[in-house]
Amino acid sequence: MGCWPRFGMWVSILLGMVGIILENANAFYLPGSYPHVYPTGSDLWVKVNSLTSVETELPYSYYSLPFCKPLDGVKDMAENLGELLMGDRIESSPYKFKMNVNESEVFLCNTTFIADEQLKVLKQRIDALYQVNLMLDNLPAIRYTKQDNFSLRWTGYPVGFRVDKTHYIFNHLKFTVLVHKDEGNSVSKVMGAGDGLDAFPTGGKSGDITPGYMVVGFEVVPCSYQHNIDASSKLKMYEKYPTPIDCSPSGRGPYQAVKEGHPIAFSYEVAFVESDIRWPSRWDAYLKMEGARVHWFSILNSLMVIAFLAGIVLVIFLRTVRRDLTRYEELDKESQAQMNEELSGWKLVVGDVFRAPAHSELLCIMVGDGVQILGMAVVTILFAAFGFMSPASRGALLTGMLFFYLVLGIAAGYVAVRMWRTLKGGDHRGWKSISWRVACFFPGVVFLVLTVLNFLLWGSQSTGAIPISLFIILLALWFCISVPLTLLGGYFGAKASQIEYPVRTNQIPREIPPQKYPSWLLVLGAGTLPFGTLFIELFFIMSSIWLGRVYYVFGFLFIVLVLLVVVCAEVSLVLTYMHLCVEDWKWWWKSFFASGSVAIYIFLYSINYLVFDLRSLSGPVSAALYIGYSLLMVFAIMLATGTIGFLASFWFVHYLFSSVKLD
Predict the structure, then answer these.
(1) Could you tell me the pTM of the whole model?
(2) Do 533 and 650 share a domain, yes or no?
């Protein structure tokens, strides 16, 4: 029963994505959600997300700790597939405001007596530096702190803190809501990119509209304050606390300690401040990444250096091949034979260069999956660069990636089957088996790893664990969308004409002469140049995934992706040409791993990031999660980059030997 609401939610997500794309096509401001205009006195409800920590990377439900609950019970708020996969659990909370109405000393509740088990869990969350994540009108709560005359921005606030052996909890919150006044006559202009139902005309006469306000900022200052339990026990939720609550350094009372058998009182206050920040700019505070100037200039410098090196390699490479071909075609047959023996080894493997490699089926399967992953990355990053998958839309990026991956199964099946037919000399029998393996190879590995990691998360009772109903949804999407589309692509690949080789393959394979150096050593070293194109960007992506920082420079990421494709193709071409020159005609797998070896360096970088940047990460479960997700990322990158190198080398070898005059 639990899976059907999720299935309906997924269908609505797909339809909603189409609607968002169509509606945002003419919008001036793409990132973010639609503007909501609230009249004075209207209710504003704060939502809560999962508790998170950079020390464990294990999210937990907000209500796994003894916090106050809403009077009408906890309700799951709107979630999409991406949010569920990321471990977000957005729920209702008892924090309620009235638009542009300041309130102070608002009492929430007294928790029941904390049992020994609850006390142990609460102390563990405090020691692990877990953060409480609140949201108002889709804006996460921001907390500002000062350190060495610098203002630091944090998303959320800590559950509590510890002094010596005593744990304290933040039980009083000071909210500041920044609002921008919307004059009634400008509602239609502002709402042009959104939904007209979000405007609230309250005037009685035509055109008489009460001005409303839009939320453009949400800040929180946590405070630990020891309430009078006897006085608060007589209060109901949202009633005013009888005495002032002063959290200033000068008037601060005793902190609220966490002790077994002692209840805790929770309260809050809220102040509304009019701001000049307009609604389209309200996410600027979240997108101001530390070291932004270094970030931009470092990426630009990396792009220029790599583009310069790639240009040199390309020019030298093209001049060398063209000169070799020109000299070869200008000679007579006897001179050509002599030149073959003395100069050019690549022409001696003409009868073996298109000999099918070992494990050719596996190569076709990996190339097909690589095309699917690469296409997903290009389309997703392109949509994100145009603002359709902004950080304001939680889970949209992951949902879009999954959607595009499913649809591009048709490209995977087509490429894999057509390549397999080419290697088999045009025989189309068995294309269903190849298509089926393409549809199951990469998703099967992902499901296997996710299942193992999910058992670890279930054992830790983390909200990061994928629910059983979601597993059923993912399996349904796999077998009902991805597999049929891959089979359809395979059908088209079987019907398409095979790629004709320009030369014939000899029956007896040519012996490869001894090499002065191991060829695989050169292949593994070739990944350093592609790694150089993305290692700076990789740092910001890793920080976004594991440290909760907002990543938004998708335009630069798209440029880096394009440059990575070019460099992978060039590196593989150079390595393939070098192997052919030493009469090594087994270039198929080497061309794949020449560019795919960049995954090795990315994995080593991930280990380096774990040791030096996530050194506070604690616990074997957290380390296993990090390694597991890193292996999945590296595996996907290997398939995508290896496919680039293989297809580029295949085109080059086909072009090279079709340009030579042979008898």
Answers:
(1) 0.83
(2) yes
